[in-house]
Specification:
single chain; alpha/beta; Glutamine Phosphoribosylpyrophosphate, subunit 1, domain 1; Rossmann fold; eight-stranded antiparallel sheet; seven-stranded antiparallel sheet; 27 strands; globular; binds fructose -6-phosphate
Length: about 625
């Protein structure tokens, strides 16, 4: 939902800002812009399109010099994606310039009041309203920029990460945050601003993550000053050392981040259980669970809240936890949960799953759960993210940065964490014997190698993709643990190839979707040996009799489905509860290859953004 970058130091800001914007393009990519302070003035360039379009426009206009600047890549909320609505936005006098990630909900009434005082607006955005509100306050109250920003933010309702500078004070950038992320990179005599640390990781490992409702004044040659937006209290900024490195955020020879991330899954899963899975001592170590074991053991119910792919991982966990721990699990779309006055009890455990840790609906759902006295456990990938901080306790997935917009390794590592939790709780509740527990751990340890084996079928999946790349619809079917995988497979195809796809529980097909099946309908069926195999084979027969084209995901060595299906893709055998970690791999590859063959932008699919920080 928009990426912001800024620089204040001795280097040319242009290259730092544009490279940073390219790294943040996963957050939005319908328009981009930058503003540099050069020749005692603000030089601004912005355009509809991607950062590459911005670079060619800026370079031909000569907007490339200056050692203070801000840049933005946009995911449109207010106002269509066009040049005028692209950020940065000037104030009416031209003295101030702003970039913003978020939504100002009460912008219309503020705009009306400002128009009443003669302000004019060149764009349809809420952001241009905010910069003019700041200017209006500067003029009326005669205060410095930082104070004017603070007063303005006390008047707005909504979410923001902003950076503002004033050409009359070019050695200062004011930033503030509520609901959207903002990191300040602290270098030697230079500062960086960004939505995440990736734009500045090659310059510094030291970062300050602003908390909600904090404002920071960044000045050349001075320490960063942080204060609360409400109440004006000064806060001592905490400079944290980052673990991220450059290699993790580059493509490493792959054509796309998505493909790289698919192939990273063996390592990512291993990183997820590293230090936790202790086979020799017969334990699973998870500090967040260990320190709150009573909460989990006394829970009458577990509620999982999440969105999108993370919601699918939550559905898989429903099967795993109910099977192993025998506690009822409800899996809720965070966006529905937060608005439907849900029944939340003090002995409920709420598990929030989120790759980014910034998804607005999930964040709001856990705030609601906390207000009602529930214990909230976060499963996030991004360290220090808002959901991680807002939760009472949690477990990171340790998947490393996921940059492709379509989630892949986040999904499998979320399932891995949730499986570890389920096994741990099942053991603590005496639901698994020592030997059953041991066998599960041993099998879980084999999963990275089995995922690596599943990736070997890439060329075969590519061939199948070439046959079906022009299909207009797809059905995905699975049962039990693999029903959520069918949903996830359909979501992957929809979001990156724009082919309509539906995921269904295989047995539900006859209650409606079967009407769609004819010789033009590809049906992907997950038909692994352990998991209602015979019943799925019957479902395949039903599809075959209606001439549907069957692509089956089967267990290595399968014979029965091979006789019926048009194409089979084999995955290694494993426990039923672990099979989603393997069956999902060919579905990720299928959607990837189809999207590439259709000429789609795999890493930046239309209309999407990596972290959805607006509701
Ligand atoms: C799908 C996808 C989205 C996210 C969803 C939740 O590939 O990426 O559906 O899963 O927006 O995001 P997080 O997990 O960051 O809360």
């Amino acid at each position: 939902m928009c990426g912001i970058v800024g620089y204040l130091g001795d280097k040319e800001a242009y290259g730092i800002i544009t490279k940073g914007l390219e790294r943040l393009e996963y957050r939005g990519y319908d328009s981009a812009g930058l503003a540099l302070f050069n020749n005692n003035d603000i030089e601004l360039c912005k355009t509809q399109g991607k950062v590459a379009d911005l670079k060619s426009k800026a370079e031909s206009a000569g907007v490339i010099h200056g050692n203070v600047g801000i840049g933005h890549t946009r995911w449109a909320t207010h106002g269509e994606p066009n040049d005028q609505n692209a950020h940065p936005h000037y104030s009416n006098s031209g003295n101030l310039v702003i970039i913003h990630n978020g939504i100002i909900e009460n912008y219309a009434s503020i705009k009306e009041a400002l128009e009443g005082r003669g302000y004019q607006f060149a764009s349809d955005t809420d952001t241009e309203v905010l910069v003019n509100l700041i200017e209006d306050i500067q003029i009326k109250e005669g205060v410095k920029l930082g104070k004017a920003v603070q007063i303005a933010l006390n008047q707005v309702v909504g979410a923001y990460a902003i950076a503002v500078f004033d050409k009359r004070k070019p050695d200062e950038i004011v930033v503030a945050k509520l609901g959207s992320p903002l990191a300040i990179g602290v270098g030697e005599g230079e500062y960086f601003i960004a939505s995440d640390a990736s734009p500045f990781i090659e310059y510094t490992n030291n970062a300050i993550y602003l908390e909600d409702e904090q404002l920071a004044i960044i000045r050349r040659g001075r320490d960063v000053k942080v204060r609360q937006i409400k109440g004006d209290k000064q806060v001592m900024p905490y400079v944290q050392e980052l673990q991220l490195n450059l290699e993790q955020i580059e493509k490493a020879g792959y054509d796309h981040f998505m493909l790289k991330e698919i192939h990273e899954q063996p390592k990512a899963i291993k990183d997820t259980y590293r230090g936790r899975l202790r086979i020799n001592s017969g334990i699973i170590k998870m500090a967040g669970v260990d320190n709150n074991l009573e909460k989990f053991l006394n829970a009458k119910r577990i509620i999982v809240v999440a969105c999108g792919t993370s919601w699918h991982a939550g559905l898989v966990s429903e099967y795993i936890i109910e099977q192993l721990v025998r506690v009822p699990v409800e899996v809720e779309y965070a966006s529905e949960f937060r608005y439907r006055n849900p029944i939340i009890n003090q002995d409920d455990v709420v598990i929030a799953i989120s790759q980014s840790g910034e998804t607005a609906d999930t964040l709001a759902a856990i705030k609601l759960a906390k207000e009602n006295g529930a214990f909230v456990f976060g499963v996030c990938n991004v360290v220090g993210s808002s959901i991680a901080r807002e939760s009472h306790a949690g477990a990171y997935t340790h998947a490393g940065p996921e940059i492709g917009v379509a989630s892949t390794k986040a999904f499998t590592t979320q399932i891995t964490v949730l499986t570890l939790m389920a096994l741990k709780l099942a053991k603590a509740k005496g639901r698994l014997s020592e030997s059953e527990f041991h066998n599960h751990l041993v099998e879980l340890e084999t999963i990275p190698d089995k995922v690596a084996d599943s990736l070997q079928i890439d060329a075969h999946v590519k061939y199948i993709s070439s046959i079906f790349k022009d299909a207009t619809n797809f059905l995905y079917l699975g049962r039990g643990y693999n029903f959520p995988v069918a949903l996830e497979g359909a979501l992957k195809l929809k979001e990156i190839s724009y082919i309509h796809a539906e995921g269904y529980p295989a047995a539900e097909m006859k209650h409606g979707p079967i009407a769609l099946i004819d010789e033009h309908m590809p049906v992907v069926v997950i038909a692994t040996k352990k998991g209602h195999y015979e019943k799925v084979v019957s479902n395949i027969q039903e599809i075959k009799s209606r001439k549907g084209k069957i692509i089956a995901i089967v267990t290595e060595g399968d014979k029965d489905v091979k006789k019926l299906a048009d194409h089979v893709i084999e995955v290694p055998e494993t426990y039923e509860g672990l099979s989603p970690l393997l069956t999902t791999i060919p579905l990720q590859l299928l959607s990837y290859h189809i999207a590439v063959m259709r000429g789609c932008n795999v890493d930046q699919p239309r209309n999407l953004a990596k972290s959805v920080t607006v509701e």
